[in-house]
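We modelled the chain as a single entity of 278 amino acids. Its sequence is:
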Amino acid sequence: MPTVTGNFGTKATINLPEGQPSGQFVVSTVSEGEGATVAKGDWVTVNYTAKDWTTGKDLASSYDSGGKPQLYQAGNGQLVPAFDQSVLGKKVGSRLLVVAPPAAGFGSQGSSALNVGKDDTVVFVLDLMQSVPQDSTLSGTMTEPPPTAPQVKDNGKAAPTITIPAGQAPPTELQTYVLIKGDGKEVKAGQQLVVQYTGVTWADGKQFDSSWNHGGAQALQVGTGSLIKGWDQGLVGQTVGSRVELVVPPSLGYGDQASGSIPANSTLVFVIDILEAV
């Protein structure tokens, strides 16, 4: 069985034993954390170190320069079983040693991105940094937006109620209101965020989308143009743990094009809980 040296939160050294791997998928806890236990569907953030047992070569690590943690939903089949299954039932703050034969790793295809050959056994050390359940939300005293802005009523583990001010013309520029100020890290362009969100149209106050209606917390990339401009501009620079209200004019939303149930030239109002940034 391989052994590990180094501490949680730093790049591990993986020491391989003599002989060939057994072909068994093995997950062992090197050190146990004291955080929440990971359940299926939780958004987990994992740092990793890896070594190809077949070749003896060290592989890319999230601790390397330019590397970043892996964010994914546990147990949902998004990644190979070495990541997908190994974290289930484990506690945040734990360091895991994972021996992944081809069936639990990269199979007969290998991975050109990681320089793993076909049918290679790979050893991973996973540091379980964070876990965000799909029904996560923020709590705390909210700062009310000004009377001319949409008002927000918290509904716990359900979509908030957003009320458009009567007789008020929509703004022509992006309006950002921090309803709860989080004390986490600052959101940077290019990061993946885990968020709960709800959106309504200013014109009639009708909800057109909410993460609460399709599985809970969602992951998306901010600041790269994959979202509407209002989100990119309004969320970069905020902090994890914040609840943000964005009033997005058409020029920073969908413009003169309809999108689903959203009419063309719509001003949009979002309430967004920023739960994690990776």
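As a brief sanity check on the tokenised model: The mean pLDDT is 96. The chain has two domains: 3-132, 151-277.
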